[in-house]
Structures are given as structure tokens and as C-alpha cells.
Design goal:
The chain is mostly beta strands. Helices cover 0% and strands 50% of the residues. The chain has strands at residues 2-7, 10-13, 18-26, 33-39, 46-52, 58-60, 68-73, 78-83, 92-99, 117-118, 122-127. β7 and β8 (78-83) form a beta hairpin. The protein is globular and about 40 Å long.
């Protein structure tokens, strides 16, 4: 079992920055992919960013490309989401997710149901 804990959310003004962290613990984590998703009130959970754990390839939603950066620290089993130039529409609960099975298609990175473990979420609120 893998346990994911997010931190770093909060309230920020438009144009500001936040860095989210996701620490993975439990059994030795040798995941294949880590992802960040978000869910705004009344909306479905949507893909934000993901990366392959071994190769470090990164993937982004169009809405955040150029503003958000996903990265990892292998030694700490931690994934980060640096969020710059935040907009009010970025307001949501942000979830960290991990997949411990092989990926057979790039589309798996973008798909909620392809992830095996989820954190509890951290609220990000961007005021205008």
C-alpha cells in the first residue's frame, strides 16, 4: 500500500505562486507515474500534470502549460507542483496520484481511473 500526503495549498492572489508537495510512503515505492489532478466545486476531477517516475518525462494540461512545473525528488519520494502566474480559475482541490502498474499508453497519464493511489487533497484558492 502506498500513502500519499499533499501539502502546500493555500490562498494566494492572482499572479502569485504556490508549490504543492506530495510525499509517498508505505511499501517501497517504485511507481511508474505520478500525477496531479484538480477538482473545482461542481466539476469533474481533471488532469493537471504528470511525470514518469523513472524517465522523468512530463505532461501538462493545456490550461497550465508554461505556468506549472512538475518535478520529483527521488531520495525523498516526493513530487512537487510549482504553480506560477496563478489565475482565479485555478481554484480547486488539488490531488496527488500514483500509478504502480506499467503504462501502455501516454493517455494513461491523463486519465483519473488509471491511477491506483490518491492523496486526500489540498485546497488552492486564487483571489482576483
Amino acid at each position: 500500500q502506498v500513502h500519499l500526503v499533499e501539502s502546500g495549498g493555500g490562498l494566494v492572489q492572482a499572479g502569485g505562486s504556490l508549490r504543492l508537495s506530495c510525499a509517498a510512503s508505505g511499501r517501497t515505492f517504485s511507481g511508474y507515474a505520478m500525477g496531479w489532478f484538480r477538482q473545482a466545486p461542481g466539476k469533474e476531477r481533471e488532469f493537471v500534470a504528470a511525470m514518469s517516475w523513472s524517465a522523468g518525462n512530463t505532461y501538462y494540461a493545456e490550461s497550465v502549460k508554461g505556468r506549472f512545473t512538475i518535478s520529483r525528488d527521488n531520495a525523498k519520494n516526493t513530487v512537487y507542483l510549482q504553480m506560477n502566474s496563478l489565475k482565479p480559475e485555478d481554484t480547486a482541490v488539488y490531488y496527488c496520484a500514483a500509478r504502480s502498474r506499467p503504462l501502455y499508453s501516454r493517455s494513461y497519464y491523463y486519465t483519473v481511473k488509471e491511477y491506483d493511489y490518491w492523496g486526500q487533497g489540498t485546497q488552492v484558492t486564487v483571489s482576483s
